[in-house]
Amino acid sequence: MSTRAESVLPEHSPGSLPIGILLAGLVLVAIGLVGVSNLLTQGHSAFNTGSSGVVWGLPVSAYVFFVLSSTGLTFVASVAMVFGIKAFYPIAKRCVWLALATLIAGFISLGLEIGHPLRMIWAIPLNLQVRSPMFWMGAFYFLYMFFLIWKFSYLQRNDWDSPASRNVGIASFVTVIIAHATLGLVFGMMAMRPFWYGSFVPVYFLATAALSGLAFAVLFTYLSHGTDTSRMEPTLRELMERFIPKIFALVLGVVLVFHLSRTITGLWSNNPEISLVMEYQVGTWLFHLELWLGMVLPFILLLLPGMRVQPMIQVLSAVLVLMAVFIGRYEYVVGGQIIPLWKGTWYPDFIAYTPSFTEWGLVALGGGIGLLIYAFGSWKFNLREQPRHL
Amino acid sequence: MAKWGMVIDLDKCTGCQACTTACGMENNTLPGENWQDVLYYTEGEYPSAQMKWLPRPCMQCENPSCVHVCPTRATYKDMDAGGIVFVDWNKCIGCKYCMIACPYGVRFYTDESPLLEPNLTKVFPGRDGQQWSPPYQNPNVDWRRGIGIQPKGVVSKCTFCYHKVSKAPEGVADLDEDNPELVEYVPACVRTCPPKARYFGDLDNPGSNVNKLVADRKGVRLLDHTGNRPQVYYLGSGASIPAFRPAPKA
User: Fold this and answer.
1) What is the ipTM, given to two decimal places?
2) Which domains are seen in chain A, by residue range?
3) What are chain B's domains?
């Protein structure tokens, strides 16, 4: 087994720590610890959420962002490991490890948001409330984490396609399909929140998960090669120049269709709890940042054959898309709550919500620990590895 | 076992908020975190503008969406306790999914910034796990049913004053505050209502006054389209919630 590790900067030789990612992770964790310190001293009064306003705020949005990115990374890894498309093997191991890192980032963000995270560990499994979509979401994401670790242990032993290894890969793929769908139902089943309601939600999450998973895969693959395709092995280089940009553009196009159809349907709707929220969101700069800079611009860049092969264009597209997906998660989660539910004239307008520093801190902590986990994997495990018979 | 229900006559309610105050005193809720409130609405414009108000306890729904979503069964509908929906504070993990799922906005997570100043959790710091410990507090405490002062990290709600109602004689059809033998068992909001706009009784008892009122006065349940089927009925004109309209931009 090779123990070669990676670097983030071109001048760094393989075998060194990914210093840039490590530093970014440490900075985020430091910011996160300030947030946690606020949480420990002030409790949830350090949040800008509340009984009479937005109940689920930024940390829940970040949880959705991270765990669905993990879902998408598993989709990308599964292209080779479940569906047998061998061209995707060069990024498969990195995607599995990144999926684990983003999943844990999501768990941290959510775990610190709820009132009793430790009680959750026994209270959910011992009470088996099978009617709750949240129960199933937790069960399947936990099972998914277990399968991810198991699958990675096979890859670390260079066992890519033994029947056992393949079956664990299939199990993790199937589990995450169910997990993401139940996460969609956590929101989609809420008929009393029309902005969220609908069987469309798991499908919408599926497409957007694939998009953020692809963006993470592109970004971290390039970062580990100093955004230089000449430093890549030929199979990886062919994947990154030939297949990935086209698939990235295709998935982004699908998500754009979903996004626009959701926006137009929402604006057209007579139901004020949908149309007014959509009108409100379309009137904010955040929406236009998400649509034009985060989706339309990278889509155009990825459509142009001369542009999409360039590493920096792909990296830029990945960063912009991740920003757009993050904004999208926030707008979706908060959008379902900004119309006051039966509150009367005490709440004459949309409920105002701006995340507090502490809420941002929890997201930073989740993201930072995710980056540190990735950096550790990049240092200790050879994430560039692919089957030797290729 | 009874199926406790409440009937609120909007033609008699004056919107005085005595019920809200009595509930706060009885259950030691933090200011602003009103398990029971009276909500005011304005609808329409001059010359047909209306002002209406709706007292709002927990609806103790027959088909409670908050119970269905709770991942730990901390929130539950107790058919042996008159169909009241409780929160078990020993099991609640504070995920707030019930607050998302309740169409009536009657669940409270009070760890966050105080709705009204001064912050009484600082003025009277909590002991024994409570969020605050006021100089006087109701001695009835049952965390398994969410009765008492709310601890940190959990959700609370109206219990129909179960600590009083549960002591009522078996088989009683109505808990009427005008009956000296029953007055101590009547929920605080019902007992205190100056114009006697609230009635409390057994919806499973064909002879109860609450059933008679619902039938004779054409009682309605609010937001009935959600399918939650409240055990709280409203009588009189104005028993509806206007759709949300944002305030006009200045």
Assistant:
1) 0.92
2) 19-380 (1.20.1630.10)
3) 4-235 (3.30.70.20)
